Every structure is written in structure tokens, then in C-alpha cells.
Amino acid sequence: MMESVRRFLEKELRLKVNERNSAVASPMKRKLIGYSFYFETRLKKLIEKTRGWVNYFKLADMSNILIDIDKWVRRRLKACIWNTRKLNKIIDQLLLD
Predict the structure, then answer these.
(1) Chain segment 35-76, per-residue pLDDT in tens
(2) CB-CB contact of 70 with 54 (8 Å)
């Protein structure tokens, strides 16, 4: 699999492949151009920061603001998931063509 990907990148796209940093694996387990797709880590950090922020401001009347923030966070997480799925689909199409 790696050989066919390397051939495609070098011949069709005229890109140089760094063999030492290259591998074929699930995007959930690899870093891609410096970005990792570990949603568990993202969620843990998000929960930690949200809890701290809520506890810091818990005396204030913040229910409406927290609902808006919750909606925004859920949209961003869905966007991350969709972008990962879209990337997987593009990679599959490139490999199958």
C-alpha cells in the first residue's frame, strides 16, 4: 500500500516523499502535517478547561451563556469529525484511482 501511495505522490503530483516520516495508518492514530486527530485528547482538554471556567464563574448567572458555548463547542467538534471523514474519503479516492 505504501509503495502505491509513494508512486502516486511522486509521479502524479511530483512531490517528494520522506520515507522516514511516512507511513500508512488510520488518521486517528497518525499526525498529518503537524496536526493530530486524537479526539479523546481534545475532549479531555476541553472538559478540563470548561469545568475550570464554569467553577471559576459559578457564582454568576451564566446559564444562557453556557448554553450558547455548549452549542458552539458541539458544532466545532462535529466539524472536526466531518473534516476527518472527508479527508479519509479523499485519501481513499486517490488510492483507488
Answers:
(1) 555 667 777 888 888 888 777 777 667 777 778 888 888 888
(2) no
Which cell numbers hold the place of 53? 471556567
With cell 476541553, the residue in question is 46
Q: CA-CA distance, 91 to 32, in Å (whole number)?
A: 12
pTM exceeds 0.90, yes or no: no
Domain boundaries, the chain: 25-96
Return the closest-CA partner of residue 5 out of 69, 77, 91.
Answer: 91
How far, in Å, CA of 36 to CA of 53, rounded?
25
Q: Would you tell me how many other CB atoms lie within 10 Å of the CB of residue 37?
A: 19
Helix (H, G, I), strand (E, B) or coil at 18: coil
Residue 79 pLDDT > 80, yes or no? yes
